[in-house]
Write a structure and sequence with these properties.
The protein has 320 residues and is an alpha+beta fold. It has one domain: Jelly Rolls. Helix content is 32%, strand content 19%. It contains 9 helices and 12 strands. α4 crosses α7 and α5 packs across α7. The N and C termini lie far apart (58 Å).
Length: 320
């Protein structure tokens, strides 16, 4: 059987594609995905193309419009019956979804908004300033900025830029944090540490244990902050902002902006984690699933990218 001319062209194109060179050229700009958007590209580089399995869960959000559970933490320290109800909601969500949103969590809206604004200020500052922080060596600097930590090892690059650092158990020196978001990173991290203590108490009670159980295990001591920037994409159907994964921590506290893009895999459907004003998203990590003997579930989630008609999507990922 002969090979058609079209097939020959396709095979030749694949053979001619030098992925390693494309990755290297992109990385050496130190401008990340935002640099591509600033250059007004109309077609995304091939390194960002993902292969979507037709047999995998729906590539869009669930057609049944499932809703991630929401938990109101108001008055849990003052009202014992209410606290019991909240604990039960968290238990059910942790066992069946691995995700839930919390409202009235004690962190002021102004702090949440300023944290999101600080992340945008970082990524939208002058490229020359950001390039000074660009690195692929986690140990080189207290704060690392790059695009795709696994750029050279993943099958396809994700449409996002990130900066991250460890904020606990040892806070970095203030001068080691970017001036455009330094103060709010320190304030937000302290607030999330307080919330983490409360959440670990509630999770302990949801396991039928003493409220201090998980905190006494020192689950609350570490804190890593990763700030992700997902620009609008000219070809969103070809790529992802973040491929499906689980988190290798105890819990993650996620702060997303009003645009949306975060999805969780539930009952073989991708379900939108729709932004709720003032809410924080909590998800169970691999370590908590491990120490609870699989009672609490660490589930796969991902981020879809946005079409040009949408604004940039910001997601702040704080891992305990």
């Amino acid at each position: 059987m002969g090979i058609s001319k079209t097939s020959e062209i396709s095979v030749t194109a694949k053979l001619d594609y030098d992925r390693a060179s494309e990755l290297k050229a992109f990385d050496e700009t130190k401008d990340g995905v935002k640099g591509l958007v600033d250059a007004s590209i109309t077609h995304i580089p091939r390194m960002f193309h993902h292969e979507f399995d037709k047999d995998s869960p729906s590539s869009s959000s669930s057609t049944t419009k499932l809703v991630v559970p929401s938990v109101d933490l108001a008055d849990i320290h003052l009202d014992a019956p209410r606290r019991k109800t909240v604990v039960e909601k968290i238990r059910e969500a942790s066992e069946t979804w691995g995700f839930f949103q919390v409202v009235n969590h004690g962190i002021e809206i102004t702090v949440l908004d300023e944290m999101k604004n600080g992340v945008i200020r970082f990524f939208e500052q002058d490229s020359e300033v950001k390039r000074e922080l660009y690195s692929r060596d986690d140990a080189a600097k207290p704060l690392v900025y790059n695009s795709n930590f696994d750029l050279y090892s993943s099958p396809a690059a994700n449409w996002r830029d990130t900066f991250y650092c460890f904020m606990a158990p040892h806070y970095p020196k203030p001068e080691d944090l970017p001036s455009v978001c330094r103060d709010i990173m320190l304030e937000y991290s302290k607030e999330v540490m307080k919330l983490g203590n409360v959440l670990f108490e509630l999770l302990s009670e949801a396991l039928g244990l003493n409220p201090n159980y998980l905190n006494d295990m020192r689950c609350n001591e570490g804190l890593a902050v990763a700030c992700h920037y997902y620009p609008s994409c000219p070809q969103p159907e070809l790529t992802l902002g973040e491929t499906k994964h689980t988190d290798n921590d105890f819990i993650t506290v996620l702060l997303q902006d009003h645009i949306g893009g975060l999805q969780v895999l539930h009952e073989n459907n991708w379900v939108d984690v729709s932004p709720v004003p003032g809410a924080l998203v909590i998800n169970i990590g691999d370590l908590l699933q491990l120490i609870t003997n699989d009672i609490f579930k660490s589930v796969e989630h991902r981020v879809v990218v946005l079409a040009p008609k949408f604004d940039t999507f910001v997601l702040i990922d704080v891992s305990h």
